[in-house]
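We read letters as residues; the integers encode the fold. Take this protein.
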Amino acid sequence: MKFIDTHTHLFSTQFLDDAEAVIERALAQEVGQFYLPNVDKNSIERMYYLADKYPNQCIPMIGLHPCSVKEDYKEQLAIIEKELEGERIFAGIGEMGLDYHWDLTFKKEQLDALRIQIEWAKKYEIPVILHTRESFDDTFSVISELNHERLTGVFHCFTGSLEDAEKVMSLGGFYMGIGGVVTFKNAGVDKTVAQIPLEHLVLETDSPYLAPTPHRGSRNESMHIPLIAQKIADAKGISLDEVAKVTTQNARQLFKSFANASKIVS
């Protein structure tokens, strides 16, 4: 049985002292690859360090997180674009998207950054990693407008309704990332997931955030992916093996350039 964590911030300062041990613990739980979504210009160096040290396990992605979209967002995007134009290969554009939870001051700028990064994804033919906190409708609207046969991606940390899931599936090449929230007792995500075909789901932790039950409130790690997978299996009435097999296939399909990068997940 093999798993892939399609979204983890292993480069976070919360892992500064023990990232290697975190990776080893995850590998022991058969989590074989970790996709690293960049946040802004300040997270690039640490992400590269892990990608270079663990080239078969830590897979870099490049983008500007919506919460990092401020007055200097064009400068930040210029730095991201320069990295895209360089020699390093990225699995996706992200983490990008819209976040309306904390502050709407830079809503217009977030929308502009979203559009720019979508066009990059089409140019380089790599998926978008979409952050949609309290902004699903606007994100879906932009994606629908700019959708193209070359555009694929994942709606990270999906916690929407069945109607939202059906909208995602209607786009064609998009998946929904399911993380620790599916294990939260009153979130209701498990009930929605039960109605979504497994072929549209990938697993993620968003670590160090959103640790699944029974670790809720503590630092999240990729080793918890099997707990998320088991909750999906329980919700759908299928085996853990089936969840592992299909979600790993989905991740490979989404991140085609890195599908066979690791012997651990081959």
